[in-house]
Design brief:
Elements: E1 3-6, E2 12-14, E3 17-22, E4 26-27, E5 31-38, E6 45-48, E7 69-73, E8 78-81, E9 87-94, E10 104-106
Parallel strand pairs: 1-10
Antiparallel strand pairs: 1-4, 2-3, 3-5, 5-9, 6-8, 7-9
């Protein structure tokens, strides 16, 4: 069973705050949860996200969206922060298949 590695981007600035994303690698058939943290919690906010294959600067083959990795929650590609909330989560499913593969990357 191959691992699928996460190469999450560096913190980004959107709206009034700074955002960071933390997650981990996982094995096929597992769910991986990413925690999105923001510094400005004064108002409710919705951020859009996508999941895509990533080569980790040429170090890995890219995971295929829909085949190797799928966004589970929220499935609509939106992370919603309530007013006063500093964190929100994204859950990604690392799909199990019968193909023999090595380590693959996504972000």
């Amino acid at each position: 069973i191959p691992n699928i590695a996460n190469s999450a981007p560096a913190p980004v600035t959107a709206g009034a705050g700074t955002y960071s994303i933390e997650g981990s690698a996982g094995n096929e058939g597992e769910n991986v949860t990413f925690t999105v943290t923001r510094t400005d919690t004064t108002s409710a906010e919705t951020l859009l996200f996508t999941i895509q294959g990533d080569t980790a600067n040429g170090q890995l083959p890219a995971a295929e969206l829909g085949t190797d990795v799928q966004a589970l929650s929220p499935a609509n590609g939106q992370v919603v922060f309530a007013a006063g909330a500093a964190t929100a989560t994204i859950t990604v499913r690392l799909a199990a298949d019968t193909t023999v593969e090595g380590l693959e990357g996504y972000k």
